[in-house]
Fold this protein.
Amino acid sequence: MAAPCWMAVRRRRFRFVTDVRTAGKLRGSSVRVLSRYRDRWREASPSLRVFLAGVLLLGINNGILTATFNNYLFDSFHVSASARGLIEFPRELPGFAMIFVTGALAAFSLRSWTMLVGLTTGVGILGLGYLSPNMSLMIFWMMLWSLGDHLFITAEATIGLKLAEANRAGRRLGQLTGARNLSMILGTGAVWLLMDRLGVRYAGVYAVAAATAILAAVAFSRLRLPGDGGGDHRRFVLKKRYTRFYLLNIFWGARKQLFLTFSPWVLVSVFHTPPQTIALLVMAAAVGGVVFRQYFGLAVDRFGERAVLVVDGVAMAAICLGFALSVNIYLLYGLFVLDSLMFATRIARITYLNKIAADKREIAPTLSMGLTLDHAVSMIVPFLGGFLWDASGYPAVFLAALVLGLGNLWLTLRLEH
Protein backbone atom coordinates (compact mmCIF):
# COMPACT_ATOMS: atom_id res chain seq x y z
CA MET A 1 0.00 0.00 0.00
CA ALA A 2 1.39 3.44 -0.88
CA ALA A 3 2.56 5.55 2.04
CA PRO A 4 0.29 8.45 3.05
CA CYS A 5 1.24 11.72 1.44
CA TRP A 6 2.05 13.28 4.81
CA MET A 7 4.69 10.56 5.37
CA ALA A 8 6.25 11.26 1.98
CA VAL A 9 6.36 14.97 2.79
CA ARG A 10 7.93 14.17 6.15
CA ARG A 11 10.60 11.95 4.52
CA ARG A 12 11.43 14.68 2.00
CA ARG A 13 11.67 17.24 4.81
CA PHE A 14 13.97 14.88 6.77
CA ARG A 15 16.21 14.38 3.77
CA PHE A 16 16.35 18.14 3.16
CA VAL A 17 17.22 18.87 6.78
CA THR A 18 19.87 16.10 6.75
CA ASP A 19 21.41 17.45 3.53
CA VAL A 20 21.49 20.98 4.94
CA ARG A 21 23.12 19.77 8.15
CA THR A 22 25.68 17.68 6.21
CA ALA A 23 26.50 20.62 3.94
CA GLY A 24 26.84 22.83 7.00
CA LYS A 25 29.23 20.38 8.65
CA LEU A 26 31.35 20.12 5.49
CA ARG A 27 31.40 23.90 5.11
CA GLY A 28 32.36 24.30 8.76
CA SER A 29 35.11 21.70 8.42
CA SER A 30 36.49 23.42 5.31
CA VAL A 31 36.48 26.78 7.09
CA ARG A 32 38.37 25.31 10.05
CA VAL A 33 41.00 23.76 7.76
CA LEU A 34 41.46 27.00 5.84
CA SER A 35 41.64 28.95 9.09
CA ARG A 36 44.31 26.60 10.38
CA TYR A 37 46.43 27.07 7.23
CA ARG A 38 45.87 30.85 7.37
CA ASP A 39 47.08 30.92 10.98
CA ARG A 40 50.15 28.84 10.09
CA TRP A 41 50.92 31.20 7.21
CA ARG A 42 50.74 34.21 9.51
CA GLU A 43 52.98 32.55 12.09
CA ALA A 44 55.58 31.49 9.52
CA SER A 45 58.83 33.42 9.19
CA PRO A 46 59.20 35.78 6.19
CA SER A 47 61.85 33.45 4.70
CA LEU A 48 59.53 30.46 4.90
CA ARG A 49 56.66 32.39 3.31
CA VAL A 50 58.81 33.58 0.41
CA PHE A 51 60.19 30.10 -0.16
CA LEU A 52 56.71 28.56 -0.01
CA ALA A 53 55.49 31.02 -2.64
CA GLY A 54 58.25 29.89 -5.02
CA VAL A 55 57.61 26.22 -4.21
CA LEU A 56 53.90 26.65 -4.97
CA LEU A 57 54.64 28.27 -8.34
CA LEU A 58 57.09 25.50 -9.29
CA GLY A 59 54.48 22.95 -8.22
CA ILE A 60 52.06 24.33 -10.82
CA ASN A 61 54.83 24.05 -13.40
CA ASN A 62 55.61 20.48 -12.33
CA GLY A 63 51.95 19.46 -12.47
CA ILE A 64 51.64 20.66 -16.07
CA LEU A 65 54.81 18.90 -17.25
CA THR A 66 54.13 15.65 -15.37
CA ALA A 67 50.65 15.41 -16.85
CA THR A 68 51.62 16.13 -20.46
CA PHE A 69 55.23 15.23 -21.25
CA ASN A 70 54.69 11.58 -22.23
CA ASN A 71 51.72 12.48 -24.41
CA TYR A 72 53.73 15.38 -25.87
CA LEU A 73 56.47 12.96 -26.98
CA PHE A 74 53.98 10.41 -28.29
CA ASP A 75 51.80 12.92 -30.17
CA SER A 76 54.54 15.22 -31.47
CA PHE A 77 57.35 12.77 -32.30
CA HIS A 78 55.64 9.33 -32.38
CA VAL A 79 58.45 7.68 -30.42
CA SER A 80 58.56 3.94 -29.70
CA ALA A 81 59.07 2.35 -26.28
CA SER A 82 62.80 1.87 -26.89
CA ALA A 83 63.15 5.46 -28.16
CA ARG A 84 61.29 6.68 -25.07
CA GLY A 85 63.87 4.88 -22.96
CA LEU A 86 66.70 6.48 -24.94
CA ILE A 87 65.26 9.97 -24.40
CA GLU A 88 65.65 9.49 -20.66
CA PHE A 89 69.45 9.51 -21.06
CA PRO A 90 69.74 13.21 -22.01
CA ARG A 91 66.82 14.13 -19.74
CA GLU A 92 68.62 12.66 -16.73
CA LEU A 93 72.09 13.89 -17.74
CA PRO A 94 71.74 17.17 -15.76
CA GLY A 95 70.93 15.09 -12.67
CA PHE A 96 74.08 13.05 -13.22
CA ALA A 97 76.10 16.27 -13.59
CA MET A 98 74.58 17.83 -10.46
CA ILE A 99 77.68 17.25 -8.30
CA PHE A 100 79.62 19.39 -10.80
CA VAL A 101 76.83 21.97 -11.13
CA THR A 102 76.52 22.52 -7.37
CA GLY A 103 80.30 22.49 -7.07
CA ALA A 104 80.48 25.34 -9.59
CA LEU A 105 77.71 27.16 -7.68
CA ALA A 106 79.26 26.61 -4.22
CA ALA A 107 80.45 30.24 -4.08
CA PHE A 108 76.91 31.51 -4.64
CA SER A 109 74.01 31.78 -2.20
CA LEU A 110 71.09 29.34 -2.11
CA ARG A 111 68.91 32.28 -3.18
CA SER A 112 70.92 32.46 -6.42
CA TRP A 113 70.48 28.71 -6.90
CA THR A 114 66.69 28.99 -6.67
CA MET A 115 66.55 31.97 -9.02
CA LEU A 116 68.59 29.98 -11.56
CA VAL A 117 66.11 27.12 -11.14
CA GLY A 118 63.17 29.32 -12.16
CA LEU A 119 64.95 30.88 -15.14
CA THR A 120 66.38 27.71 -16.68
CA THR A 121 63.13 25.82 -16.15
CA GLY A 122 61.05 28.56 -17.73
CA VAL A 123 63.27 29.06 -20.78
CA GLY A 124 63.56 25.30 -21.34
CA ILE A 125 59.80 24.80 -21.29
CA LEU A 126 59.23 27.71 -23.68
CA GLY A 127 61.68 26.01 -26.04
CA LEU A 128 59.73 22.75 -25.82
CA GLY A 129 56.53 24.54 -26.72
CA TYR A 130 57.73 26.88 -29.48
CA LEU A 131 61.24 25.99 -30.67
CA SER A 132 61.23 22.21 -31.11
CA PRO A 133 60.61 21.44 -34.80
CA ASN A 134 62.77 18.32 -34.57
CA MET A 135 63.99 15.80 -32.02
CA SER A 136 67.46 17.33 -31.63
CA LEU A 137 66.18 20.76 -30.61
CA MET A 138 63.54 19.20 -28.38
CA ILE A 139 66.28 17.33 -26.51
CA PHE A 140 68.30 20.54 -26.05
CA TRP A 141 65.35 22.41 -24.48
CA MET A 142 64.39 19.35 -22.45
CA MET A 143 67.90 19.25 -20.95
CA LEU A 144 67.70 22.95 -20.02
CA TRP A 145 64.35 22.39 -18.29
CA SER A 146 65.78 19.29 -16.61
CA LEU A 147 68.79 21.26 -15.31
CA GLY A 148 66.53 23.59 -13.35
CA ASP A 149 64.31 20.75 -12.17
CA HIS A 150 67.25 18.75 -10.80
CA LEU A 151 69.01 21.72 -9.23
CA PHE A 152 65.88 22.41 -7.22
CA ILE A 153 65.98 18.89 -5.73
CA THR A 154 69.19 19.78 -3.89
CA ALA A 155 68.21 23.40 -3.19
CA GLU A 156 64.78 22.53 -1.78
CA ALA A 157 66.16 19.89 0.60
CA THR A 158 69.02 22.10 1.83
CA ILE A 159 66.78 25.11 2.40
CA GLY A 160 64.11 22.93 4.01
CA LEU A 161 66.63 21.66 6.57
CA LYS A 162 67.72 25.25 7.28
CA LEU A 163 64.11 26.28 7.88
CA ALA A 164 63.35 23.28 10.14
CA GLU A 165 63.19 23.30 13.93
CA ALA A 166 65.43 20.94 15.92
CA ASN A 167 64.38 17.27 15.57
CA ARG A 168 61.52 18.25 13.25
CA ALA A 169 63.22 18.11 9.87
CA GLY A 170 60.82 15.45 8.60
CA ARG A 171 57.84 17.62 9.50
CA ARG A 172 59.23 20.67 7.66
CA LEU A 173 60.18 18.69 4.54
CA GLY A 174 56.75 17.06 4.57
CA GLN A 175 55.10 20.48 4.73
CA LEU A 176 57.14 21.81 1.82
CA THR A 177 56.58 18.80 -0.42
CA GLY A 178 52.90 18.72 0.60
CA ALA A 179 52.58 22.35 -0.44
CA ARG A 180 54.18 21.54 -3.77
CA ASN A 181 51.66 18.72 -4.24
CA LEU A 182 48.86 21.17 -3.48
CA SER A 183 49.95 23.45 -6.30
CA MET A 184 50.43 20.47 -8.64
CA ILE A 185 46.65 20.15 -8.41
CA LEU A 186 46.35 23.57 -10.01
CA GLY A 187 48.83 22.56 -12.72
CA THR A 188 47.04 19.35 -13.62
CA GLY A 189 43.71 21.15 -13.39
CA ALA A 190 45.04 23.71 -15.85
CA VAL A 191 45.92 20.89 -18.28
CA TRP A 192 42.38 19.51 -18.05
CA LEU A 193 40.81 22.95 -18.50
CA LEU A 194 43.09 24.17 -21.29
CA MET A 195 43.33 20.97 -23.35
CA ASP A 196 40.02 19.22 -22.70
CA ARG A 197 37.67 22.20 -22.40
CA LEU A 198 39.35 24.96 -24.41
CA GLY A 199 41.25 22.90 -26.99
CA VAL A 200 44.62 24.58 -26.31
CA ARG A 201 47.59 22.79 -27.85
CA TYR A 202 50.87 21.87 -26.15
CA ALA A 203 52.53 25.20 -26.99
CA GLY A 204 49.91 27.22 -25.14
CA VAL A 205 49.96 24.91 -22.13
CA TYR A 206 53.76 25.11 -21.95
CA ALA A 207 53.62 28.92 -22.12
CA VAL A 208 51.56 28.84 -18.92
CA ALA A 209 54.08 26.45 -17.32
CA ALA A 210 57.01 28.69 -18.31
CA ALA A 211 55.28 31.76 -16.83
CA THR A 212 54.91 30.07 -13.43
CA ALA A 213 58.60 29.10 -13.42
CA ILE A 214 59.71 32.67 -14.17
CA LEU A 215 57.37 34.02 -11.48
CA ALA A 216 58.99 31.54 -9.08
CA ALA A 217 62.40 33.06 -9.90
CA VAL A 218 60.98 36.50 -9.04
CA ALA A 219 59.66 35.15 -5.71
CA PHE A 220 62.96 33.47 -4.87
CA SER A 221 64.81 36.76 -5.50
CA ARG A 222 63.27 37.99 -2.21
CA LEU A 223 64.49 34.97 -0.20
CA ARG A 224 66.74 35.80 2.76
CA LEU A 225 68.30 32.97 4.78
CA PRO A 226 70.60 33.33 7.81
CA GLY A 227 74.23 32.79 6.86
CA ASP A 228 73.42 32.47 3.15
CA GLY A 229 75.99 34.86 1.82
CA GLY A 230 77.60 32.31 -0.50
CA GLY A 231 80.55 30.01 -0.01
CA ASP A 232 78.73 28.11 2.77
CA HIS A 233 79.01 24.74 1.01
CA ARG A 234 81.80 22.29 0.25
CA ARG A 235 82.41 21.86 -3.45
CA PHE A 236 82.80 18.10 -3.46
CA VAL A 237 82.23 15.39 -0.85
CA LEU A 238 82.77 11.64 -1.21
CA LYS A 239 83.22 9.82 2.10
CA LYS A 240 82.94 6.25 3.36
CA ARG A 241 80.72 7.62 6.16
CA TYR A 242 77.95 8.22 3.60
CA THR A 243 78.17 4.86 1.78
CA ARG A 244 74.69 3.67 2.78
CA PHE A 245 73.19 6.99 1.74
CA TYR A 246 74.86 6.62 -1.65
CA LEU A 247 73.56 3.04 -2.04
CA LEU A 248 70.02 4.06 -1.08
CA ASN A 249 70.11 6.63 -3.86
CA ILE A 250 71.44 4.12 -6.40
CA PHE A 251 68.70 1.56 -5.70
CA TRP A 252 66.07 4.27 -5.55
CA GLY A 253 67.24 5.83 -8.82
CA ALA A 254 66.99 2.57 -10.74
CA ARG A 255 63.56 1.59 -9.42
CA LYS A 256 62.21 5.13 -9.62
CA GLN A 257 63.27 5.70 -13.19
CA LEU A 258 61.71 2.50 -14.46
CA PHE A 259 58.39 3.68 -13.06
CA LEU A 260 58.73 7.32 -14.09
CA THR A 261 59.45 6.22 -17.64
CA PHE A 262 57.34 3.13 -18.17
CA SER A 263 54.30 3.25 -15.86
CA PRO A 264 52.79 6.26 -17.69
CA TRP A 265 54.06 4.80 -20.97
CA VAL A 266 52.08 1.60 -20.32
CA LEU A 267 48.96 3.64 -19.68
CA VAL A 268 49.50 5.80 -22.79
CA SER A 269 50.76 3.30 -25.38
CA VAL A 270 49.16 0.02 -24.23
CA PHE A 271 45.88 1.17 -22.69
CA HIS A 272 45.58 4.40 -24.78
CA THR A 273 45.00 6.66 -21.80
CA PRO A 274 44.50 10.28 -22.99
CA PRO A 275 46.42 13.22 -21.49
CA GLN A 276 43.30 14.44 -19.68
CA THR A 277 43.08 11.15 -17.76
CA ILE A 278 46.80 11.19 -16.97
CA ALA A 279 46.27 14.72 -15.67
CA LEU A 280 43.43 13.51 -13.42
CA LEU A 281 45.65 10.71 -12.07
CA VAL A 282 48.44 13.17 -11.35
CA MET A 283 45.87 15.42 -9.69
CA ALA A 284 44.62 12.53 -7.54
CA ALA A 285 48.20 11.78 -6.45
CA ALA A 286 48.75 15.46 -5.72
CA VAL A 287 45.56 15.72 -3.64
CA GLY A 288 46.56 12.66 -1.63
CA GLY A 289 50.13 13.89 -1.36
CA VAL A 290 49.11 17.18 0.28
CA VAL A 291 48.14 15.22 3.39
CA PHE A 292 50.23 12.07 2.91
CA ARG A 293 53.59 13.84 2.70
CA GLN A 294 52.98 15.84 5.85
CA TYR A 295 52.04 12.73 7.82
CA PHE A 296 54.94 10.86 6.24
CA GLY A 297 57.31 13.56 7.51
CA LEU A 298 55.80 13.27 10.98
CA ALA A 299 56.19 9.46 10.81
CA VAL A 300 59.87 9.85 9.93
CA ASP A 301 60.39 12.07 12.99
CA ARG A 302 58.50 9.65 15.24
CA PHE A 303 59.45 6.16 14.01
CA GLY A 304 62.74 6.78 12.20
CA GLU A 305 63.92 6.39 8.63
CA ARG A 306 64.37 2.61 8.73
CA ALA A 307 60.75 1.86 9.65
CA VAL A 308 59.15 4.04 6.99
CA LEU A 309 61.53 2.83 4.26
CA VAL A 310 60.64 -0.79 5.07
CA VAL A 311 56.96 0.05 4.58
CA ASP A 312 57.89 1.66 1.26
CA GLY A 313 59.71 -1.51 0.19
CA VAL A 314 56.65 -3.67 0.83
CA ALA A 315 54.37 -1.23 -1.01
CA MET A 316 56.74 -1.15 -3.99
CA ALA A 317 56.70 -4.95 -4.29
CA ALA A 318 52.89 -4.84 -4.55
CA ILE A 319 53.02 -2.04 -7.14
CA CYS A 320 55.57 -3.85 -9.32
CA LEU A 321 53.59 -7.09 -9.27
CA GLY A 322 50.39 -5.23 -10.10
CA PHE A 323 51.84 -3.54 -13.18
CA ALA A 324 53.50 -6.78 -14.31
CA LEU A 325 50.50 -9.10 -13.92
CA SER A 326 47.26 -7.08 -14.02
CA VAL A 327 45.34 -5.81 -17.06
CA ASN A 328 42.66 -4.14 -14.97
CA ILE A 329 43.01 -0.52 -15.98
CA TYR A 330 41.42 0.81 -12.80
CA LEU A 331 43.80 -1.20 -10.63
CA LEU A 332 46.69 0.21 -12.67
CA TYR A 333 45.34 3.72 -12.18
CA GLY A 334 45.30 3.11 -8.42
CA LEU A 335 48.84 1.71 -8.42
CA PHE A 336 50.04 4.69 -10.48
CA VAL A 337 48.68 7.03 -7.81
CA LEU A 338 50.15 4.92 -4.97
CA ASP A 339 53.57 4.92 -6.65
CA SER A 340 53.41 8.71 -6.91
CA LEU A 341 52.61 8.97 -3.20
CA MET A 342 55.59 6.79 -2.28
CA PHE A 343 57.97 9.37 -3.75
CA ALA A 344 57.64 10.93 -0.30
CA THR A 345 60.34 8.49 0.85
CA ARG A 346 62.89 11.06 -0.30
CA ILE A 347 62.11 12.85 2.98
CA ALA A 348 63.50 9.85 4.91
CA ARG A 349 66.72 9.76 2.89
CA ILE A 350 67.29 13.48 3.46
CA THR A 351 66.71 13.30 7.22
CA TYR A 352 68.93 10.19 7.40
CA LEU A 353 71.75 12.19 5.83
CA ASN A 354 71.06 15.11 8.16
CA LYS A 355 71.51 12.78 11.15
CA ILE A 356 74.75 11.16 10.01
CA ALA A 357 76.40 14.29 8.52
CA ALA A 358 79.72 15.05 10.22
CA ASP A 359 79.52 18.70 9.11
CA LYS A 360 76.33 20.52 8.03
CA ARG A 361 78.32 22.16 5.24
CA GLU A 362 78.62 18.68 3.70
CA ILE A 363 74.85 18.21 3.33
CA ALA A 364 74.35 20.07 0.01
CA PRO A 365 77.32 18.45 -1.80
CA THR A 366 76.42 15.01 -0.39
CA LEU A 367 72.83 15.43 -1.56
CA SER A 368 74.25 16.34 -4.97
CA MET A 369 76.52 13.28 -4.93
CA GLY A 370 73.51 11.11 -4.08
CA LEU A 371 71.63 12.72 -6.96
CA THR A 372 74.54 12.10 -9.32
CA LEU A 373 74.69 8.41 -8.36
CA ASP A 374 70.90 8.18 -8.61
CA HIS A 375 71.06 9.54 -12.15
CA ALA A 376 74.05 7.49 -13.19
CA VAL A 377 71.74 4.48 -13.03
CA SER A 378 68.68 6.52 -14.08
CA MET A 379 70.25 7.19 -17.46
CA ILE A 380 71.09 3.53 -18.09
CA VAL A 381 68.05 1.73 -16.67
CA PRO A 382 65.40 3.22 -19.03
CA PHE A 383 67.64 2.44 -22.00
CA LEU A 384 67.82 -1.21 -20.90
CA GLY A 385 64.14 -1.19 -19.94
CA GLY A 386 63.10 -0.06 -23.41
CA PHE A 387 64.95 -2.95 -25.04
CA LEU A 388 63.63 -5.37 -22.43
CA TRP A 389 60.10 -4.20 -23.29
CA ASP A 390 60.72 -4.72 -27.01
CA ALA A 391 62.23 -8.17 -26.40
CA SER A 392 59.90 -9.58 -23.72
CA GLY A 393 56.97 -7.19 -23.28
CA TYR A 394 56.23 -4.59 -20.66
CA PRO A 395 55.61 -7.06 -17.75
CA ALA A 396 59.32 -7.96 -17.83
CA VAL A 397 60.19 -4.31 -17.12
CA PHE A 398 58.17 -4.28 -13.92
CA LEU A 399 59.48 -7.64 -12.77
CA ALA A 400 62.97 -6.15 -13.14
CA ALA A 401 61.79 -3.19 -11.05
CA LEU A 402 60.60 -5.68 -8.42
CA VAL A 403 64.11 -7.14 -8.16
CA LEU A 404 65.57 -3.65 -7.69
CA GLY A 405 62.93 -2.83 -5.09
CA LEU A 406 63.81 -5.96 -3.11
CA GLY A 407 67.47 -4.94 -3.22
CA ASN A 408 66.50 -1.56 -1.81
CA LEU A 409 64.50 -3.28 0.96
CA TRP A 410 67.50 -5.51 1.82
CA LEU A 411 69.69 -2.41 2.22
CA THR A 412 67.05 -0.62 4.29
CA LEU A 413 66.90 -3.47 6.80
CA ARG A 414 70.60 -2.87 7.45
CA LEU A 415 70.26 0.80 8.33
CA GLU A 416 70.84 1.92 11.88
CA HIS A 417 67.67 2.16 14.00
Q: What stands out?
A: The longest helix spans residues 5-43. The radius of gyration is 23 Å. Confidence is low (pLDDT under 50) at residues 14-20.
